[in-house]
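Data card: per-record layout.
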Amino acid sequence: MAQRLSPNPKQESTVSELNDKANVRHARRRPAARIAIVIACCAAGATLAACSSGGGSSSSAVAGGGNSPAAGGGSADAGTGGSAAMVPVTIAYTAPVADQLIPLITKEAGIFDKYGIPVTMTYLPQTEALDGIVGGKVQMSVFDGPAPEVAVADGEPIKWIAEWESHADLFLLGRPGVAGVKDLAGKPVAETVAGSTTAVLTQVALRDAGVLTTTHLQPLGNVGATLSAFQSGSVQATIAGPPNQTTLIKSVPGAKILVDYTTSIPWVGGGVAADIPWANAHKAETIDIIKALTDGEQYFKTHKAESVKDIETVTKSGQADAEDAYDSMLKIMNQTSSIVPQASIESATLKAIATTSPGAASLTGASVVDTEFAQAASK
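The structure for this 379-residue chain is written out next.
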């Protein structure tokens, strides 16, 4: 009997889709228009959900939603005097998966409240979160690579300000008879959509093994389709994350992990990117947000039961799957030395997306991170 797979609800945006979205934003965005959007939302007393409800999200989860307005129009510069009241801030996460939930778990544990920061958490698909940052509806968002890198390459004022995972929580699996990545030459390999996170990482592994041009990449559209194709044998390799990689190995005798991305290619598996103009205008608050996230990381590590419960709630998974996701995430977090974003990791990501995002070729790792806030928070 085939074992039950858990198609990851993570909605990947391809590099080309992110580039297309950026072109649309550039066409419609002007400084005055951006300010007008923020003022209009705040003047109407709208919550974030009301301001962004037209996005057609497939699912949503809001922690501590309240009636906090979007903070893009905050008038006080909390970074200058230190005495100004904290302005409301909205932090999005872009996939209902464990790796993205450190801010939400921090919120649920009351840690933001300890610092006096009025935080609203909300779920937005990746491209909507980028639009929200540029439009002032959200100030920060959780991502994995390469969405912020593509945004920076397209000229958006977005940078990584914190990261808790320096590798992707993913695995490239091969079916029986595939002993290594080189054995995939001439064979069909699944990917979701060309240019997606999983597709980029698959192609990096194939390129490093010298078989990218001879492998038959099969874009199957979504994670569920790639898992089913691997299980049925219509493809010989696919990427999977917890708990699916374990399920596939059990259900396909002889299947094995070809590439463990949790220890190989440097990649931001979980971190926060921010609207840098907003962060600079609210430096003290931004620093306190990262202090809270640092405390949230420690809470995650020392409060497994509570963290697993939050993962269960958001991912709509069972306890066993949530515990598996927690354990895999904890392994990567323990390998990540600091919450300060690392330029070296970004260099690897920029190299990986250079062929699909032309602007990435002119960037350095340092150009897509802002370490000022995390370094100040670490003092």
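Known properties of this structure: The mean pLDDT is 82. The longest helix spans residues 283-302.

See the next section for split statistics.
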